[in-house]
C-alpha cells in the first residue's frame, strides 16, 4: 500500500501562508512527509529524516482535510516527498479543484501531476535531469561563496521558463545577506527569496 501511494508518513499537516519562493504570502494546506536521505547540514526540519517515526496516513484523509480549507492549494514538502508515489495524493487534490505545489531536492524520480515544482538542489544528491527540465522554480540555499557556483551550475540545466531564486541560509543571514544582495544586483536573472514565515513567526 505504501508503494502505491495510498498511505504516506505524515510529520504534520497545517493551514498557513507559504513563506518562501514564488508563492510567498499565499494561503495553502501544508503536508510535510517524513523521510530524507540527503542530510543537509542547514536543514531546519531534521526531525523529518527518519520516516519510521511518523504514522502512515490514508491519502483520502489528507485530501479531505485540505478540501475543508478556503485556499485551493496544497504544498507538499518534507523531508523528501519524492521518496513516495504521489500520484494518488495529487489525483485526489485535483478532483477537489486543489492545486498541488511540490517542494523537492530533485534527487528521486518524479511522481504525481504537479501545478508547480519548486526545486531546491543539494550537493549530496544532485537533481535528476527530468526534474530539472520540469522545474517551475529553482531555489538555491546560499550559505557561503561556493554556493553561488552551485546555483549557476543548476541554472544552466533548468528550462528557460524556470524562475531563479537565491535564498539565504537562515542561520547565516547576517553573514551572507550583503553578498547575496550584491550578487543579485550584478546578476539580475536571479531573485531573492526569504523565509518570510520565520519573520512572521508562523509555521
Could you explain how this protein is built, in words?
The chain is of the alpha/beta class and 203 residues long. It has a single domain (7-200), classed as Aldolase class I (TIM Barrel), CATH 3.20.20. 26% of the residues lie in helices and 25% in strands. It has helices at 59-67, 87-95, 129-134, 146-155, 173-186, 196-200, and strands at 7-17, 27-33, 56-58, 73-77, 99-104, 116-119, 137-142, 163-168, 190-192. A 9-stranded mixed sheet has the order 3-1-2-4-5-6-7-8-9. Helix 1 (59-67) packs parallel to helix 2 (87-95).
Helix content: 25-40%
Low-confidence stretches: none
How is the CATH topology named? TIM Barrel
CATH superfamily: Aldolase class I
Q: Give me the Rg, rounded.
A: 16 Å
Amino acid at each position: 500500500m505504501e508503494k502505491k501511494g495510498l498511505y504516506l508518513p505524515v510529520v504534520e499537516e497545517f493551514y498557513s501562508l507559504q513563506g518562501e519562493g514564488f508563492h510567498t504570502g499565499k494561503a495553502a494546506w501544508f503536508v510535510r512527509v517524513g523521510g530524507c536521505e540527503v542530510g543537509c547540514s542547514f536543514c531546519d526540519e531534521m526531525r523529518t529524516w527518519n520516516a519510521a517515526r511518523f504514522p502512515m496516513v490514508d491519502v483520502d484523509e489528507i485530501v479531505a482535510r485540505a478540501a475543508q480549507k478556503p485556499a485551493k492549494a496544497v504544498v507538499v514538502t518534507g523531508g523528501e516527498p519524492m521518496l513516495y508515489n504521489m500520484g494518488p495524493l495529487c489525483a485526489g487534490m485535483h478532483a477537489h479543484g486543489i492545486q498541488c505545489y511540490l517542494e523537492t531536492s530533485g534527487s528521486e524520480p518524479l511522481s504525481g501531476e504537479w501545478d508547480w515544482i519548486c526545486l531546491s538542489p543539494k550537493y549530496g544528491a544532485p537533481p535528476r535531469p527530468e526534474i530539472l527540465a520540469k522545474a517551475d522554480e529553482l531555489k538555491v540555499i546560499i550559505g557561503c561563496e561556493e554556493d553561488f557556483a552551485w546555483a549557476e551550475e543548476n541554472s544552466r540545466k533548468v528550462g528557460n521558463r524556470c524562475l531563479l531564486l537565491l535564498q539565504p541560509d537562515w542561520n547565516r543571514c547576517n553573514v551572507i545577506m550583503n553578498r547575496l544582495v550584491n550578487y543579485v544586483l550584478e546578476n539580475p536573472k536571479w531573485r531573492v527569496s526569504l523565509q518570510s514565515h520565520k519573520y512572521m513567526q508562523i509555521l
